[in-house]
Write a structure and sequence with these properties.
The structure is a single chain. This protein is 15% helix and 35% strand. The protein is an alpha+beta fold and 749 residues long. The protein has a domain of 283 residues: 3-Layer(aba) Sandwich (Rossmann fold). A hairpin with a 5-residue loop joins β33 and β34. α8 packs across α9. The protein is globular, with a radius of gyration of 26 Å.
């Protein structure tokens, strides 16, 4: 579960749900009022479109695929017909690497994406992608030999492949198809089956199951040894995982005609909290002998293996493991040939959970590895030897490390991103003597991407008042050029209102917030307010970072839009986050109600006209806050909400709540469906009927409980759409209906 704009945009661009079918929305006949919502004037809706995806997204450079030395990079042309080479320093075009019109042996119509081999001699390009889950897809892949201009299908046997990966010497490609793993030997143009037991909704080899993809952020579970001799992979046995089914309809924008008269179903394995997860096992494949070995790890309490990665040696595969409660992480160093393993590193948390940054930030070098931990109370970086000894704590203090970019061996420097106060993000370097240098401004939000040689980095900086600016730098501190300044984009929103940051106190805690006032703000008036939040553990919505969306547009319509990050959110250390452990919804609700009362205390706010909105976890918290007996909200709009943590996936939910058996009271107290008797707020719920993440059953069960309690709400369904509700003007329709609803319920004329 996430709320980041960047992830949503990536998902939208990849079209990553095979059951996203953009169609017209429908209004269910569950109106809590006799009067219909007044529709927005076409001119107003047209202006709102400028503040919705994709029109509200600033420009960003196309992803650079660097050649090994970092001096050049490749980019896919906008029309998908060419892959072009550029000089890193100047940005000047240096030639065309691939032109679909001139390739030898085979032709493709349009390239959708590509990757490069480690030695820079070959490309993997794909077309005809078919989305699977929110973060994964299959496609028709081709291998392109750069020097010979030869394009050949990756597989003659399988029309679609998943997650192909070059061997280090670029002479082989491992890929998944039909739940099995295959190796294409490019020199001989032969294809070898590594596994044969793959079966839909039963056995998956080399590709993570749904919950691993969603919550562990990975779409591939196979890695090559540095000597090209071994392929290691994970096998997922999901036979005993309960099956979830989503109903599919014909639809209108991209119709599935097979469902014209009778709906269909998409069924997949989805473990809810407390239910059986996939059995995950580790294996190695010897390329020469074609034998698979089973690798057994010594700890019987291992439930999850989020990562496997070779650490610069064919005899050292690092396996990251978690127990089911996700409060103990252990790294094992495994020799895949002998199958001998030893414990390399352990991190435990007796008061909460192991943060996912702990494994996602880990990087491995020839003589040491770097890993993140919250053991000090704040997320910091630590350097360890491969005998398990701590060599050096790299960062310290009350800052929170939020990204680790890597180590430059030539300069002896580490590069990372950290907080500078909760609202800001700074890119920094740390040298061998412990000296820290800021590589970006210390206010606003900065992030960086580095080339493989660590010679260059692209810096992105924005703030609440400045659209993103992308600049290219060398790691010896020279600024080379501005790549994108978004000046034309920013000019489109010159008159749009901006965020104003503030603090407030709730239950003894100082919380950060922002508000957006109308451009013609009059302190003598009494304005309606819309409270927006996400509130999920470790998230942050209140940041000094550029965003231009529905919030700014609503401010042009006479609203004050406010947002407060309550307890449990990120950027402030472990103690602030872990307040919510075992009690999701409790303290977030106290804080959101306190935030509403803070807003109501302001002389220019009408306390009787405050609404609340959120999406996903934010939708959940919207229902929680609106279901309290002391609720200060006159109206609520929840999009794709969780309505009971018993309905959500095991990995995310149990990380913060443990299992229902271990924490029955927490599950009951934190379930909006348990609070329907208190729901007296005007409520609009919107959800996609093919949401594979937060299932529409959450909404259906909640509405059913409302009806049983003699209450109703308004409900808007987006047929065949997933959690993101992007396609066919889906986002525009969400924010149009929300504005109409608040206009009516908050009496905003």
């Amino acid at each position: 579960m996430d709320n980041t704009i960047e992830k949503d945009i990536k998902i939208a661009k990849m079209n990553v749900s095979r059951y996203i079918l953009p169609v017209a929305v429908i209004m269910a006949a569950l109106s809590g009022t006799e009067d219909a919502m007044a529709e927005l004037a076409p001119a107003v809706q047209g202006e709102l479109a400028r503040y919705c995806y994709p029109e509200n997204i600033p420009s960003s450079p196309s992803p650079n695929v660097y050649l090994p030395d970092g001096s050049h990079y490749l980019q896919l042309a906008e029309d998908g017909k060419k892959i072009v080479k550029y000089e890193t320093r100047t940005g000047n075009e240096a030639g065309t690497i691939l032109d679909v019109a001139t390739t030898r042996y085979n032709k493709i119509g349009k390239i959708q994406g590509f990757s490069i081999s480690g030695d820079g001699t070959k490309l993997l390009v794909y077309e005809k992608s078919k989305t699977l889950y929110r973060h994964s897809f299959a496609a028709s892949y081709y291998v392109f030999e750069i020097n010979r201009n030869i394009l050949k299908p990756l597989s003659e046997t399988h029309a679609m492949q998943q997650s192909p990966v070059f061997s280090p010497d670029a002479r082989m490609v491992a890929f998944a198809a039909d739940n099995n793993i295959y190796i294409k030997k490019l020199d001989y143009e032969t294809e070898v089956a590594v596994t044969t037991d793959g079966a839909a909704n039963r056995i998956i080899n080399g590709i993570p199951d749904w919950v691993y993809q969603e919550e562990f952020g990975t779409c591939a579970s196979m890695v090559w040894a540095p000597d090209n001799a071994t392929l290691c992979f994970l096998r997922y046995d999901e036979s005993a995982v309960p099956t979830y089914s989503l109903t599919l309809y014909e639809g209108a924008c991209d119709p599935m005609t097979q469902y014209a008269l009778y709906p269909g179903q998409f069924s997949y394995k989805y473990p809810v909290a407390g239910e059986k997860n996939s059995d995950v096992t580790l294996h190695s494949y010897d390329v020469e002998t074609r034998k698979v070995k089973n690798i057994t790890l010594p700890d019987n309490a291992i439930e999850y293996i989020p990562r496997i990665e070779y650490a610069c040696s064919p005899e050292r595969l690092v396996v990251t493991t978690l127990n089911r409660a996700q409060n103990r992480m252990e790294l094992y160093a495994v020799n895949p040939k002998s199958t001998v393993s030893r414990s390399l590193y352990t991190d435990e948390n007796t008061s909460g959970w192991i943060d996912p940054d702990s494994w996602s930030m880990a990087k491995y070098y020839p003589d040491f590895f770097v890993i993140a931990s919250q053991r000090s109370g704040y997320n910091h970086l630590y350097q360890y030897s491969y005998n398990g000894a701590l060599m050096r704590q790299l960062t310290a203090g009350e800052e929170v490390v939020t990204a680790y970019y890597g180590f430059d061996a030539r300069r002896g420097e580490h590069y990372y991103q950290s907080t500078a106060g909760p609202l800001n993000r700074v890119v920094k370097s740390l040298d061998a003597k412990g000296r820290i240098t800021d590589l970006s401004e210390t206010t606003g939000t900065s992030s960086a991407t580095f080339d493989p040689s660590m010679g260059y980095f692209m810096l992105c900086h924005s703030s609440a008042t400045q659209a993103p600016v992308y600049t290219l730098h060398t790691t010896d501190r020279n600024r080379i050029r501005t790549v994108e300044d978004n000046s034309a984009y920013a000019a489109r929103y010159k008159s749009a209102p901006r965020k104003e940051f503030f603090t407030m106190v709730s239950d003894g805690y100082t919380l950060n917030g922002y508000m957006i006032k109308p451009v013609d703000f009059d302190p003598a008036r009494k304005y309606p307010v819309i409270m927006y939040q996400y509130s999920g553990p470790g998230s942050q919505t209140v940041l000094d970072k550029w965003s231009m969306g529905w919030e700014q547009f609503y401010a042009t319509q006479g609203y004050i839009v406010a947002c407060v990050d309550g307890r449990g959110t990120g950027g402030r250390g472990r103690a602030f986050e872990e307040v919510v452990y075992r009690h999701l919804g409790k303290y977030e609700t106290i804080d959101q109600i306190a935030a509403a009362r803070h807003m109501a205390s302001l002389p220019y706010v009408d306390g009787s006209r405050i609404g609340i909105h959120g999406w996903s976890y934010g939708g959940y918290e919207t229902l929680m806050a609106a279901s309290q007996t002391d609720c200060p909200f006159a109206a609520a709009v929840a999009v794709a909400p969780v309505t009971s943590w018993r309905y959500y996936d095991s990995v995310y939910t149990e990380r913060y709540m443990l299992t229902p058996r271990e924490n029955e009271d927490g599950y009951n107290d934190g379930a909006p469906i348990s609070l329907v008797d208190n729901m007296n707020t005007s409520l609009l719920i919107m959800t996609g009927t093919a949401d594979d993440n937060v299932h529409p059953a959450n909404t259906m069960e909640y509405v059913s409980r409302l009806l049983a309690a003699g209450r109703t709400c308004d409900m808007l369904l987006f047929p065949n759409m997933n959690h993101s509700i992007f396609q066919c003007n889906g986002r525009l329709m969400v924010y149009t209906k929300m504005l109409e609803y608040f206009n009516e319920k908050l009496d905003n004329k």
